[in-house]
Write a structure and sequence with these properties.
Layout lengths: L8 E6 L12 H10 L5 E12 L3 H18 L3 E2 L5 E10 L6 H15 L9 E5 L4 H8 L5 E6 L4 H6 L1 H13 L2 E4 L2 H10 L7 E3 L19 E5 L8 H14 L4 E5 L5 H11 L5 E5 L6 H6 L3 E4 L8 H8 L4 E5 L2 H5 L4 H4 E5 L5 H13 L6 H12 L1 H13 L7
Helix pairs in contact: 1-16, 3-4, 3-6, 8-9, 8-14, 15-16
Amino acid sequence: MVTQDQERHVAVLTPWYPDAQIPFSGAFVESMAAAVAPGLDRLDVFHTDEWIVNASAERRERIWDAHAGMLPRSVPPVRTVAGARLRRVPVILPKSKWRDFGERAEHHAHWLKAALGGEPIEAPVIHAHVPIYSAWAALQNCRPDARVYATEHASFLVKILRQPRARAMYDEILHRLAGYFVVGDVLHDVVAGTFPHHADKIRYIANPIDFGTRRAAPPTALRRWLSVASFKAGKRHDHLLRAFAACRADDPSLTLTLAGDGVLRPEIEALVDELGVREAVTFLGMVQPSEVPGIMAAHDVLVHPSAFETFGVVAVEAVAAGLPVLITRCGGPELVLDGIEDAAGVMIDVVDDPQALVDGYRLLRERYPSKTDLEHARGHLESKYGYEAIGAQYHRIWFGENGAER
């Protein structure tokens, strides 16, 4: 345990962190860094960033040798949020190993060690995000007296644990960690079911949310729909668009803004044209995480029909911005909105029928605003998920019950 008179030096390890190419990747880690930095003497963020190499064995060997030689002096730290020091570590990985989670974990550990010149991570406290990669790397590169913690966010955890080697490594990680956290019930149940001998070690922690930007006044009508989601099958943009078209047939003033991008964009654009709603739909493409609160504040309602979420960040962000939500019970949202579902908007079950979303929207319009209470919902969520609340929770984890009092 770090005492009050010792330096509060923490390292955060993550396989995802925003960059110019993918500004939303690991945005939750950037938010976590911003939340915990106040009250720390030093915060280091290590981003072990996978680079896939498709080359012959002979050429790979030359690449590996060159990378190992350059790495210790080619990735100097730069400043990131709240004065933290960010060091990006390229983790080169053969394309043939892409589907082997255990092999990928070993590469994260190996290249982090190379970047550190064989020296351990200096910080006495390390918090890793996505354990199979970052906690494994941390445990292989920490000081003997370091306390290593980890948080699981990965929606693909079931795939990881299907692989015997990765499952054995995960078991070892859980055994060695000083603390282990998940962001939702779904992940808790997966880990507890796979490793019942570690069930008592699993605790919850949330992703911090920015409550600094909100609408000047609550929406007066729920006509400007907003979706913030990557374009992939699990986000169910097809359901969203079909429901929007049906609702717009009743109210031609409705509009829909899609913030996000992905491999399914051509299909989504084609469906927009097929449904005849092109003039009412705006594609924003990828947006910076810092832009999301302002975008939300310019709309009337968040509509999010996802099939699965580990947490429910977008629901909290919407309420923080002053929007009611129409969202599915898909894992995370029902956890974060527990006790305030009716105040925040309407939740519907995940069913394979866009009509459920249509019915949910009609119900929300009937209930809003008299039977909702966005101010109450917002205050409740800020007390649990605001930067100050989450930062204090991390400090208590790392430094004890009085850890937030500095």
